[in-house]
Amino acid sequence: MADRPAVESIEQHNLALQHHFVNMEQQRNAASLGMWLFLATEIMFFGGLFCSYLIYRYWYPNEFAIASRALSLPIGTVNTAVLICSSLTVALSVRAAQVGQRKMLVILLLLTMLFGLTFLGVKGYEWHDEYERHHVPGLAFNISDLTAEYPQIHIDPVHTQLFFALYFAMTGLHALHMIIGVGLFCFITFYAWKGHYGPDYHTPLENSGLYWHFVDIVWIYLFPLLYLIDRHPLK
Amino acid sequence: MSEHIVSSKTYYTIWIILLVLTAVTAWIATVDLRPPLNTIVALLIASGKATIVVLFFMHVKYTSEKLTKTVLVAAVFWLLILLALSMADYTTRHLL
C-alpha cells in the first residue's frame, strides 16, 4: 500500500478529471486538439464547395456578376454583423466560465442562441424572397428581371443557375451548421445553468465555442464571395 | 500552467474591429477598382477578419499547445493545395 501512485498528493484530485489523463491541463489540451482535428475535416468539407465556386466563377464571370446582384447587400451586411456579435457572446461566455460567473454565462449563451436564430431567420427571409423571384434553380428559374437591367452584357441565363445552385448549397450547408450549433448550445446552456461549468472544467463549452467561431469564419468568406463581388458598376 | 484568461476588453476590441471591417468591405465593394482588385481587397479583408477570430476568439494566440497550431496550419495549407492546384489546371487549359 505504501507505493501507491502519488498523483493525488501532487495535484488535488478534480472530479472532472478522467483516469487516463495525468492532469486537467493534459485533458483540456487533448479535447481541444480533437476539436481542431474535427474543424480541419470541416475545412475540407466546405473547401470542396469553395473550389467548385472558384472554378465556375472563373468560367462564367459575367453570369456570376449579374446573379450576385440579386442578393441584398444591406441584408447580407447586417447578417454578417449579427454573426460577429454571436461570436463575441460565445467568446465572453467562455471567459465567464473561466472566472466562475454562472449567471453571466447563462445570459451570454442565451444571447448567442438569440443571435444565431436571428441570423437563421434573416437567411430564411432571403431564401423566401429568392423563391418568390424565381431565383431557385429548376424549371421555374427565371433571371430575366436581372438580365434586362444589363442589356449591354451578353450572358447565358442557364449559367446564372450555377451561381444560385452554389449559393443555396453553400448558404444551406452553413445554415445547417448554424442549426446544429444552436442545438449544441441548448444542451450547453442547460448544463451551464445546472452549474456544471466553472473555472476548472468547461471543455464542452469551449469546444462548442470553437465550432461556433469556425461557422462564423465560413460566413466571413461566404459574405464577400456571394454578396460583394462585382457590386461595382458594370461596364 | 493554467489556462490563459483573455480580458473582456480584448474581446470587445476585436468585436469592434470585426464590425468596422465588415462595414468597410461592404462599402468598398460598391467602389469600382480595377477589375481583379475588388475581389482581392474583399478576400484580403475576409482573411484579416478570419485571422483575428482564430487568434483571439479561438485562443490560438494564447495556446501553449503546439499541436493545435500544427493542425490549423496543416488544414489551411491542405485547403490551399486543393484550391491552387485545381485553379492551376482550369486556368491553363486554353494554353494547350
Write structural notes for this entry.
The complex is a heterodimer of chains A (235) and B (96). With 235 residues, chain A is mainly α. Chain A has one domain (45-228): Cytochrome c oxidase, subunit III, four-helix bundle (Four Helix Bundle (Hemerythrin (Met), subunit A), Up-down Bundle), CATH 1.20.120.80. In chain A, 73% of the residues lie in helices and 0% in strands. Chain A contains 8 helices and no strands. In chain A, helix 4 packs antiparallel against helix 5. Chain A is elongated and about 75 Å long. In chain A, 34% of the residues are buried. The model of chain A has no long low-confidence stretch (mean pLDDT 90). Chain B is mainly α. Chain B folds into 2 domains: 1-63; 65-96. Chain B is built from 3 helices and no strands. Chain B has helices spanning 8-28, 35-57, 66-90. In chain B, helix 1 (8-28) runs antiparallel to helix 2 (35-57). Chain B is flat and about 55 Å long. Chain B starts with 7 loop residues before the first helix and ends in a 6-residue tail after the last helix.
Short description:
Chain A is mostly helical. Chain A has eight helices and no strands.
Q: What number is the mean pLDDT of chain A?
A: 90
Low-confidence stretches of chain B: none
Order of secondary-structure elements of chain B: HHH
Strand content of chain A: under 5%
The number of helical elements of chain B comes to 3
CATH fold topology of chain A = Four Helix Bundle (Hemerythrin (Met), subunit A)
> Quick one: biggest sheet of chain A?
none
Biggest interface, chains and residues, is:
A-B, 52 and 51 residues
Indicate the overall shape of chain B: flat
CATH homologous superfamily annotation of chain A: Cytochrome c oxidase, subunit III, four-helix bundle
Number of domains of chain B: 2
Number of strands of chain B: 0
| Biggest beta-sheet profile of chain B | none
- The count of DSSP E runs of length 2 or more, i.e. the number of strands of chain A, is 0
